[in-house]
Amino acid sequence: MRVLTTGQAAQQLQVTSETIRRLIEANELKASRLTDKGQYRILESDLKEYAARRNLLLASDAQSAK
């Protein structure tokens, strides 16, 4: 089980880290916080689930498809 930072998740979806934070705060993307006001961590499986719901291709999937 791989754990991603918001930056790594943003790279996979090809969006900004701020977009990832907005998705998390809108409860569209599951994430955990290290502390009450700390950084978020996202399970790779949760990111893949989000991408599948939205019919999005992750950057890592696009690379392996080449």
Summarize the structure.
Helices cover 52% and strands 12% of the residues.
Write the layout of secondary structure elements.
Layout: E1 3-4, H1 6-13, H2 17-25, E2 32-33, E3 40-43, H3 44-53, H4 59-65
Antiparallel strand pairs: 1-3, 2-3
Distance between the termini: 24 Å
Query: What is the fold named in CATH at topology level?
Result: Multidrug-efflux Transporter Regulator, Chain: A, Domain 2
Fraction of residues in helix: 40-55%
Q: Rg, please?
A: 11 Å
In N-to-C order, the SSE pattern is EHHEEHH
Structure explained in plain terms:
The protein is of the alpha+beta class. The chain has one domain (3-65): Multidrug-efflux Transporter Regulator, Chain: A, Domain 2 (Orthogonal Bundle), CATH 1.10.1660. The chain is built from four helices and three strands. It has a three-stranded antiparallel β-sheet. The longest helix is centred in the last third of the chain and has 10 residues, at 44-53. The protein is globular. The mean pLDDT is 93.
Note the main attributes of this structure.
single chain, about 70 residues, alpha+beta, three-stranded antiparallel beta sheet, 4 helices
